[in-house]
Amino acid sequence: MLKKNFMKLLICDMAGTTIQENGIVYKTLYDTIKCVNPDLKTSEIDTFHGFNKVEVMEHYVKEKNLDKKGSRLLLNNMNKTFTEKLKENYINDPSVTLIHPGLPDYFNDLRNAGMKVALNTGYNKDIQELLINKFNLNNCIDDYISSSEVQRGRPYPHMIHALMNRNNIFDRSRIVKVGDTGVDILEGKSAGCLTVGVLSGSSTKGVFDIVNPDYIVNNIMDIKFY
Predict the structure, then answer these.
(1) pLDDT value at position 202?
(2) What is the DSSP string of the chain?
(3) What whole-number distance in Å separates Cα of residue 69 and Cα of residue 20?
(4) 120 contacts: CB under 8 Å, gap ≥ 6
(5) CATH assignment of 9-20+97-222?
(6) What is the pLDDT, as a whole number, of residue 128?
């Protein structure tokens, strides 16, 4: 599929791509927003898979037509509630696991071949680091970044650009973005990278047929390098 000695940077989404969390993040996001928007339907949240979670909450806060101070206060309270509940769920729910037990070895094989492995996410930094520490992923990755650290989250390419700069890798043809949502693929395309859609998370093949990644596989472990 991909030349191991040519590719230099593998950028992987977290929930649904490297972490199996059975949609907990979107259930928690739905519960948080529904507290201020009782008419919210779960299908509405489905359209925001992969996006910066604060930006999603901000979208619904704007619908309340509050003044600037009221909007900021409401958003801060929602984000605090969301973060605390999601942390609790991720710490205590035994169904939250690596997408595959062999993932650390898979990453380290690629790193031993000269490739760097990085994680990016629509989570805030605290949630991202909670998961990285929970699964000891620092032992098998080179870098990670959250959408909370850049000006705009997906589908904008800012996270990928930051990782490129930090790792001194600027040939976009040698960078692969892997994700389980359409917005992951759009992020990779915006950055000019190769893209791989995985079916282990929230999206079906039909979603990927629309955004047209370079490859579609069932699981990140199915990405073959030769």
Answers:
(1) 85
(2) -B-TTT--EEEE-SBTTTEE-TTHHHHHHHHHHHTT-TT--HHHHHTTTTS-HHHHHHHHHHTT---HHHHHHHHHHHHHHHHHHHHHHHHH-TT-EESSTTHHHHHHHHHHTT-EEEEEESS-HHHHHHHHHHTTGGGT-SEEEEGGGSSS-TTSSHHHHHHHHHHT---GGGEEEEESSHHHHHHHHHHT-EEEEETTSS--HHHHHHH--SEEESSGGG--B-
(3) 37
(4) 11, 12, 13, 14, 144, 145, 146, 147, 159, 160, 163
(5) 3.40.50.1000
(6) 97
Cis (ω within 30 of 0) for the bond into 94? no
Q: Please compute Rg for the chain using Cα positions.
A: 17
Tokens of 30: 């739905």
pLDDT tens for 145-203 read 999 999 999 999 999 999 999 999 999 999 999 999 999 999 999 999 999 999 999 89
Residue 163 CB: number of other CB atoms within 10 A? 23
